[in-house]
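Go through this pair.

…
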Amino acid sequence: MKTELVTSDRNRIILLTRVSAAIDHDMENNNPIINGYAQRVNEVRAALAEAVKEVKEAIIVRRAQARVRDEQVQKLVRGVRDFWNVLQRRNARENLPETVLDYYHISFNNLPGANDRHGWVMLAGELLEGEEKAVEAGVAAMSNPSAADLAGYLEGTNEACNSVSVADRTLLGAQEVLQKLRETSHQLIRDIAATLRIGLSGKDASKRRRTMRNYGFSFSGDINSEVFQEPEPNESTPETSNPSAPEESAPEESAQSAVS
């Protein structure tokens, strides 16, 4: 007989829960089939469930931080464009020479733009630096928006980006813990199945299948096969997304059932 594959965190937790209950039942009836697994099963099951929870919570936090960052970036983009438009109109109104714009590293007819968040952050910094140099040279300070307004947008964007970076590191750490526990639970399940087969050796096929099902395993394929087959624990953890993307996808679990 061949057991079906355990391919998701949910199914691993369900199977280990069934194993724990079956061990307790057998002990209560003085008919233990496997020994020495009860504590280990409960520890791994609890740790795996907690790790799954930690990853899901880390994803929620990361998404929230990413939304805040994107909102701050949009404020910065509007601030940069407003600053440039007001600067252009003021220079034209006061008939200032085009060389004034040299302080800001832009030409009179060049509307500032950038391809990504990093570009807008850099552009805002250049405008603020240019404003400082222009004021030092005797040019009137900008207003509505002022340099302070633009600096506030820039500070808010940098703080939001830093928060996303912290959330990224938290998520990555949670993913690493979860992956290790997947490997641990994978090996534990294999060990339990092997131990069960040894304990059930000599029993008839229906008795073996019934007992294995009581422990959470189910079967498919050749009923004459006694080989336990399970893939390596390569289930993908939720990847830390490109920080320039607004959101990331939550981890998806396989829908394949490992219990009868």
